Amino acid sequence: MGLRETNPAGFSNHTVSLRPCWQTFIPTSAQVSAVHQPGRFRFTLDNDILTTEQRQFYEDNGYLLIRKLVSDEDIERFRKEFIRICKKEVRVPGAMIMKNEALRSQYGQTESVVNKVQDFQENEELFRYCTLPQILKYVECFTGPNIMAMHTMLINKLPDSDKQTFLHPMHQDLHYFPFRPADRIVCSWTAMQRADENNGCLVVLPGTHTLPLKPHGYPEWEGKTNKLFHGILDYNEKSPKVHLVMEKGDTVFFHPLLIHGSGINKTSGFRKSISCHFASSDGHYIDVKNTTQADLEKELQEMVHKRYDMPALELKDIWTFRARVVQGERINL
């Protein structure tokens, strides 16, 4: 079963750019740099959005689920735009589109073939998700007022039976990110339809956001592993897990060190979600050389060079191209 990635590094074919003048690169270890807040809470900021109970839950568990945050109307608009992308009615510059090529002869250019659209920051309709006021008001509780949209995805988990084709092993998102501090980064993940154990909902390990960044790599399991679907190398399968059962419009916010993943889709339908990683623009980029993230940087450099014949870029350069300010000022990121 063949998977093809289109534009894996998030560049359009003509992208050549120098570092913007606003960037501040701080050479440092890729180990987590934390922002310590005075008082009771480390992971959330003082405002009138979150209750004390919600802040304590995130403090203890590393995630917070908000029910019915995104309207059915917005989700339907995102779904229709995804269908247009699948049919190639819309081109998304710089996006990576993951497909199951083995299904194309049967289904053609449809949603039955496309598993993921990543880096959709150049698509006005999908990127609208990252600017929704109801999303940003919660994001600000974690990042502060100056907010960057760093990483965007629309996942269409295809029916998979027992092949594990689209299974993402347990991982920490910070593994992919060359920016810090970790505590001022948050993911907003919205279910576009019901997500449960049958169709591959998110699975989290509560409280693991307090752990350091662990070494990641490709899982040692039978069958195909997807490019850049890294997992924690010393992951214990017996670790207590929570399956996040969510209805359409429900949104979970979680810390980039929270260990999480998703299962296979055992149904005959799809499981769609849309997400964005946000970060405080007051943060900084790091140099990942000689860290647990060095192999990831090398893998991405090889992919970019092979596809675009471009000189080797550092991981932070790749992320700079993707970043977009969505609230406040762009300071460093």
TrEMBL record:
Supply one GO CC term from the record: peroxisome
Tell me which InterPro entries the record gives: PhyH, Phytyl_CoA_dOase-like
Give its E.C. classification number: 1.14.11.18
Q: Which pathway or pathways does this protein act in?
A: Lipid metabolism; fatty acid metabolism
PANTHER family of this UniProt entry? PHYTANOYL-COA ALPHA-HYDROXYLASE (PTHR21308), PHYTANOYL-COA DIOXYGENASE, PEROXISOMAL (PTHR21308:SF1)
Q: Which family does it belong to?
A: Belongs to the PhyH family.
Q: What is this protein called?
A: Phytanoyl-CoA dioxygenase, peroxisomal
Taxonomic lineage per UniProt? Answer: Eukaryota, Metazoa, Chordata, Craniata, Vertebrata
**Gene expressing this chain:** PHYH
